[in-house]
Amino acid sequence: MTRRSSVWSYLRESIQKDGTIHLSLIDPENQSPKTAAEIAERSVKAGTHGIMVGGSTAIGVLDECVKEIKTRLDDVPIILFPGNVTGISQYADAIFFMSLLNSRNPYWIVGAQMLGAPVVKHWNIEPISLAYLIIEPGGTAGFVGEVNLIPRNMPKITLAYALAAQLMGFKLIYLEAGSGAEQSVPLEMVKLVSQEVGSDCPVIVGGGIDSADVARGYVRAGASVIVQGTFVEKTVLKDGGKSLEKIIKAIKES
Ligand code: 1GP
Known about the structure:
Layout: H1 7-18, E1 21-26, H2 33-45, E2 50-53, H3 62-72, E3 78-80, E4 94-100, H4 106-123, E5 126-134, H5 139-144, H6 155-167, E6 172-176, H7 187-197, E7 203-206, H8 212-221, E8 225-228, H9 230-239, H10 242-253
Parallel strand pairs: 1-2, 1-8, 2-3, 3-4, 4-5, 5-6, 6-7, 7-8
Helix pairs in contact: 2-3, 2-9, 6-7, 7-8, 8-10
Bound molecules: SN-glycerol-1-phosphate.
SN-glycerol-1-phosphate binds at residues 25, 141, 176, 179-181, 206-209, 227-231.
């Protein structure tokens, strides 16, 4: 198994080239490692740029899941999206080394990171610093992360957090509505944050994105990365990746 040399360079260059890229998120808790690998493989065929692996609660099966995906897909980066210190696997190419800036509990801002950092360093996993902001409704991530949810009608609060993240030197900013959220992040919020900090810190949007129209809206609002988890897990094996392909095509053509 080889490891990619620099996932961050790959992401940055892909964003520069394509404008907005797509990442597929797989939660190891939702299926067997074999099924997860099948989903990842089909997502790549549908045009996704990389595979994120993680969830708010998964423990135990992560290594198996990452290994299985890696044996099938050696040329697409596998990036950890950890919900806690248990979300680290030595087999991944990179890790979104994230801080949940709007948590009320310092554990999610820097405590888990303090515990995880030596492990990331030991396994030489590429860290990509990421400021994580959870917006209403927030879902499981909002609940587990003890978040002071940003109200949907307060884009300026999100911007203030994003500016703080930029000044603190984070590479990426992730605006999260929560996995499977009924309402995804408001367009106006994505637009404001992308306009003000997007050229320095690319903006990732995720949570409840389930159609080409919604994805198109985020591309036009200036998002650099669109993440889909629930949609990918629900559709890719059923229709061989056709629906996902449509969404990724819409992202490319917007
Ligand atoms: C969750 O933003 C991601 O952390 C993806 O959300 O599962 O709703 O696509 P979905």
